[in-house]
Specification:
3 strands, about 120 residues, alpha/beta, 4 helices
Length: about 120
């Protein structure tokens, strides 16, 4: 982690909860923004609404979305939002995921770092 980097994260948070909690800090104008949301959203959660509002707040020049690994419906939502804004979706190879199928292994994090600017 470098001094110019900013991390806004909380373990286990849903997309709507993240947006409500951090919307006042999302008007960022960073060169690169990486978003990893959707995995903790329940089936009836309005992920699309939350992610569109979140993405509208971000003025990053390059935005990456980490594809949710465990909910196929949320994968589609993340891909739709990324497409709407011309962003890139990164899918971590299954062999680089931990046993919980949610978090990357050390090789998975290295893969993320190598596939983002």
């Amino acid at each position: 982690y470098r001094p110019e980097c900013q991390k806004i994260a909380i373990s286990g948070i849903s997309s709507p909860s993240f947006y409500e909690r951090y919307k006042h800090r999302l008007n960022v104008n960073s060169r690169v923004v990486i978003i990893s949301l959707g995995t903790n959203d329940l089936k009836n959660t309005d992920t699309l609404f939350s992610l569109v509002f979140l993405r509208q707040s971000i003025k990053g020049k390059i935005v990456y979305w980490i594809e949710p690994t465990n909910l196929s419906i949320k994968k589609d939502v993340v891909r739709i939002v990324a497409y709407m804004f011309g962003d890139t979706v990164i899918s971590i190879p299954k062999n680089m995921m931990s046993k919980d199928r949610i978090h990357p292994t050390p090789q998975g994090y290295k893969y993320l770092a190598q596939n983002t600017i």
